[in-house]
Write a structure and sequence with these properties.
By secondary structure, this protein is mainly beta. It has one domain: Neuraminidase, CATH 2.120.10. It has no helices and 29 strands. It has strands at about 5, 10, 20-25, 35-40, 45, 55, 60-65, 70-80, 85-90, 90-95, 115, 125-130, 135-140, 140-150, 155-170, 175-180, 180-185, 190-195, 205-210, 215-220, 225-230, 235-240, 250, 255-265, 265-280, 280-290, 300-310, 310-315, 320-325. The strands form 7 sheets. Strands 11, 14, 15, 16, 17 and 18 form a 6-stranded antiparallel beta sheet that branches. It has a 5-stranded mixed beta sheet with strand order 1-26-25-24-23, with no helix packed on it. A 4-stranded antiparallel beta sheet has the order 2-29-28-27, with no helix packed on it. Strand 5 (about 45) and strand 6 (about 55) form a beta hairpin. It is globular. The relative contact order is 0.14.
Length: about 325
């Protein structure tokens, strides 16, 4: 029988920013709360069936990097995309817009190389310095699930099942591809390294769970959920996994905590499925049911799901103002 495990409260948006809309937030590799906030009076509009607001075509925002009571503000002016992801990079931040508008060519041409100047590909990944000046802006593809940076300055983007990317060819054309899975970029852009072209026998329909640690990255791609282990040189191991439902991951050596969730009894059940690598397979060993710090069951879906080594950070039902923490060794 699964035992209850209380999450730890990790961080929240300081009260003095309560009047601002939180467009995106995360926990960075130093454990800091990072958020992109903006004043909704600029013309933000409600999204049908959701509690969040969508920004206007042009708007000003502030990136907040919160370390305890210390908060550093980075002004970001005249933004032109709906940036749904944020993380720190050096002393600045990187922003991501997960979806791209159509590229401006007919679907009939998707099967052939298209001259790059005929495509309208947005620079949907932007790197800003500590003063809010753009250091790099480049196209990162469509259908991005998660943005995570690491302590070495790499930018990782994971993708869901509607992902696509126009790959650059040497002759100045681009070719359409899909099922990207996971990509790694440097801080200036350039051509990314992508797992989908370097993982024989593994389908990358959706990168369901991602853990970007200090030295290693782990991912579980749908539909088979193998545990894929990577380092800066590429894929190091692919291990069959008996846990086939997960959307978040904490890793400590050969021990793993897979986050799973579902509706149950008119509410929501958050569960950690504990597992270990034994020989050439990852085997499930037990369950923990997650509850909030006060013992209550979560009131909605677990969102965010930022995994870094032995820690996994979660939001409750898309509340970007508060983050909770699970520690695999606590």
């Amino acid at each position: 029988m699964a035992t209850d495990r209380r999450l730890a409260f990790h961080a929240m948006l300081p009260n003095r920013y309560a009047h601002l809309e939180v467009i995106a937030s995360t926990i960075d590799h130093l454990g800091r709360f990072v958020a992109l906030v903006a004043d909704p009076v600029q013309g933000f509009v409600p999204i049908p069936h959701f509690s969040e607001l969508r920004p206007p075509p042009r708007y000003d925002a502030i990136a907040l990097i919160c370390h305890g009571a210390e908060v550093r503000e980075i002004p970001l002016n005249d933004l032109d995309l709906w940036f749904t992801g944020i993380d720190t990079l050096g002393d600045g931040v990187v922003l991501l817009s997960a979806r791209c508008d159509p590229p401006g060519v007919s679907h009939e041409r998707y099967g052939e190389p298209v001259p790059e100047d005929e495509l309208h590909l947005p620079a949907n990944l932007r790197v800003f310095d500590s003063g809010g000046q753009t250091r790099a802006a480049f196209y990162a593809g469509d259908g991005i699930e998660q943005l995570v940076t690491d302590s070495h300055g790499h930018i990782w983007t994971s993708y869901f099942d509607e992902s696509s990317y126009w790959f650059a060819n040497p002759d100045g054309t681009r070719s359409y591809g899909f099922m990207i899975g996971l990509a790694r970029w440097d801080s200036t852009g350039g051509e990314p390294w992508m797992v989908s072209s370097d993982t024989p026998g593994v389908a990358w329909c959706d990168c369901y769970a991602l853990n970007v640690g200090r030295e290693r990255v782990h991912a579980c791609p749908y539909p088979d959920f193998p545990l894929v282990e990577l380092d800066p040189n590429g894929i190091q191991a692919i291990t069959p996994n008996t846990v086939t439902r997960c959307s978040g991951l904490a890793v400590a050596g050969s021990e793993f905590a897979f986050f799973d969730q579902r509706r149950a009894g008119g509410g929501f059940l958050w569960e950690i499925r504990r597992a270990y690598r034994e020989g050439e397979v990852v085997l499930e060993k037990g369950h923990e049911q997650l509850v909030l710090p006060d013992g209550r069951r979560p009131s909605g879906w677990g969102r965010g799901k930022v995994g870094r080594d032995g820690m996994l950070w979660l939001q409750v039902d898309g509340d970007r103002r508060r983050w909770y923490r699970y520690e695999i060794d606590a």
